[in-house]
Write a structure and sequence with these properties.
alpha+beta, four-stranded mixed β-sheet, 4 strands
C-alpha cells in the first residue's frame, strides 16, 4: 500500500528537480532503493506504475503556479 502524503509544510524546494526533464519537482516518490522526483507532468504520466512500486509519495502539485 502506498501512503500519499500532503502536508501543510513544503518538503520540496526550488532546487529539487524532475529526474525526467529537469523542471521543478513537485512530487517525490519514495522507493525501497531511493527517491525519485518528478514535475507534475511526468508524475501524472507514470503515476500508475509509480504508485504500485512506492511506499510513500509526497505530492505537492497543489503548489504549482502559486
Amino acid at each position: 500500500m502506498t501512503l500519499i502524503t500532503e502536508t501543510d509544510e513544503r518538503v520540496l524546494n526550488l532546487q529539487d528537480r524532475c529526474d525526467s526533464c529537469g523542471a521543478q519537482a513537485f512530487v517525490m516518490v519514495k522507493l525501497l532503493n531511493g527517491n525519485l522526483m518528478f514535475c507534475g507532468h511526468h508524475y501524472s504520466k507514470h503515476s500508475d506504475k509509480l504508485n504500485s512500486q512506492s511506499y510513500e509519495i509526497v505530492d505537492e502539485r497543489e503548489y504549482i503556479d502559486k
